[in-house]
Amino acid sequence: MAIYARQPDGTYKKVALLSYHLTDEILIADDSEVEVTSGAFTKLKEFTIFFDADTLRIYWEMKGADIYTEACAKIYKNDEPVTDYYSLISSDYRPYKVDVSADWKAGDKVQLYGRTSGGSSYFRNFRILGSFFASR
């Protein structure tokens, strides 16, 4: 794996050789809460990653406004879905942690899309998890 630095012209240059490992350490986080009122999948949060990885560990939490509202989420890569959807009917936040294999490259966008089945659904704590170790 390589670590890239964004250059002034918008390209990425390899700056180090490290290997990404799936762990539960937080690498990138957006913990703010987002409310969704649409029944169509809508982009809620997005990160641009700065490293290559075959698989990323992605975490988020979601809930419905009440016990009758379904919250649904999907993970996208560069505006294309790379997972099936995850859903729940609960008024309490529930955590999701999934390992998503999608041949990730530096500059790719990791996106959380969500929808609701009526009323409102809420999403928070969108994170990329993992650790870097020096390659030998």
Textual characterization of the structure:
Helices cover 0% and strands 68% of the residues. With 136 residues, the protein is mostly beta strands. The radius of gyration is 16 Å and the shape is elongated. The relative contact order is 0.36. The model has no long low-confidence stretch (mean pLDDT 93).
What is the CA-CA span between the terminal residues? 11 Å
- Overall body shape: elongated
Helix-and-strand structural type: mainly beta
The residue fraction in helices comes out at: under 10%
Q: Number of helical runs?
A: 0
Rg: 16 Å
- Give the oligomeric state of the chains in this entry, treating copies of one chain as homo and distinct chains as hetero: single chain
Order of helices and strands: EEEEEEEEEEE
Strand content: over 45%
Low-confidence stretches: none
- Average the pLDDT over all residues and give the rounded result: 93
In short:
With 136 residues, the chain is mostly beta strands.
Essential attributes:
136 residues; six-stranded antiparallel β-sheet; five-stranded antiparallel β-sheet; 68% strand; mainly beta
Write the layout of secondary structure elements.
Layout lengths: L1 E5 L5 E19 L3 E3 L5 E7 L4 E12 L5 E8 L2 E2 L4 E4 L4 E11 L4 E8 L4 E14 L2
Antiparallel strand pairs: 1-2, 2-11, 3-11, 4-10, 5-9, 5-11, 6-7, 6-8, 6-10
